[in-house]
Amino acid sequence: MQEKEYRILVINPGSTSTKIGVFDNEKDILEKTIRHDADKINSFENIIDQYEFRKEMILETLDEEGINISKLSAVCGRGGLLRPIEGGTYAVNEAMLEDLRIGFSGQHASNLGGIIAFEIASGLNIPSFIVDPVVVDELEPLARISGFSLIERKSIFHALNQKAVARRVAKQIGKRYEELNLIVTHMGGGITVGVHKNGKVIDVNNGLTGDGPFSPERAGTVPAGDLIDLCFSGEYYRDEIMKKLVGQGGLVGYLGTNDAVQVEKMIADGDQKAKHIYDAMAYQIAKEIGSASAVLDGKVDAIILTGGLAYGKDFVAEISRKINWIADVIIHPGENELQALAEGALRVLQGEEEVKMYPGSVKDKTIV
Ligand SMILES: Nc1ncnc2c1ncn2[C@@H]1O[C@H](COP(=O)(O)OP(=O)(O)O)[C@@H](O)[C@H]1O
Ligand SMILES: CCCC(=O)OP(=O)(O)O
């Protein structure tokens, strides 16, 4: 019997771009990256205010590409800053929408993934899902200790791509993901370095407002005492400081752009400051990978470098030079997020996996 074909629209809002794809079962018939200028993105007060802008761009792009949305079977979005949950495919429900709208665990473009998926799907009377959201939490107890008893470390990272790329690499080297110790470094608008031990991400930097290397648009770890002094200097409102850390931090703060391609052009044109800052970003990433290798007692099967920045040959070479004594370095430029979203939705549509229901209710703040 012929397998039923599902046409799935997938939506991946990132901090510097919105990526969309249309899949007939596993086969991609469209993949498109819409890049957003840092000034445009920073002109919105809150993430939720970008809803119309991003949704319209998606619908316009689908129209231009000749995709008739009435033929879709499901819509799947990248999951955002919900409550910490296990990995898997979740149906978008009311509790999830409320948490995405308020940004239960913080503000990030991925909060729009589930919301836009739901809006498009409900107009067509088809289901909407999210897969492996950025709050997937598999941290070991030791990794949760921050050193400051009032604050616990959190797992906020590129869970979808880290897991998808780790699985792909495991296949390439002929092993199961669950058998390997991997360090997966996603380098996009945010940068996260995940310690994957036997199929679980047991430690990772919180790539949003937490810690780790600075990135195209985020500050990463900053000296805590100096930050507190700045917060109480009377010069800034809370939201201004937050924006300086996320959105206007990292490359944007130093060089005025979140676009690494532009930074590479500045360097090629002899801009010494751009070179210094770009080198510092590579240095901080290498340092984070070094500390991740200590979490695995040095027993690392491979280090994977992925995300948009992994297209930068000199950048990747500089990181690799510093860390290739630990283990083989595998470069996987870009990401597998669109494919991973489509496959997650498909597993549920084809009945291979049970859809998960998002727990929780915003009103009483309890998990049900
Ligand atoms: N060919 C390339 N060389 C170097 N950097 C690149 C290249 N293509 C994209 N990038 C950079 O990768 C970053 C975006 O990565 P991406 O994974 O797409 O981010 P996000 O999904 O967070 O928006 C940007 O700084 C972009 O300029
Ligand atoms: C919130 C962690 C995921 C992240 O940083 O994604 P982007 O790089 O797409 O902003």
From TrEMBL:
Keywords: ATP-binding, Cytoplasm, Kinase, Nucleotide-binding, Transferase. The keyword Transcription does not apply. GO terms for molecular function: acetate kinase activity; ATP binding; butyrate kinase activity. InterPro entries: Aliphatic_acid_kin_short-chain, Aliphatic_acid_kinase_CS, ATPase_NBD, Butyrate_kin. The keyword Kinase applies. It is found in: Cytoplasm. It is an enzyme of class 2 (transferase). GO terms for cellular component: cytoplasm. Its EC number is 2.7.2.7. Pfam families: Acetate_kinase. GO terms for biological process: acetate metabolic process. It comes from the Bacteria. Belongs to the acetokinase family. This is Probable butyrate kinase.
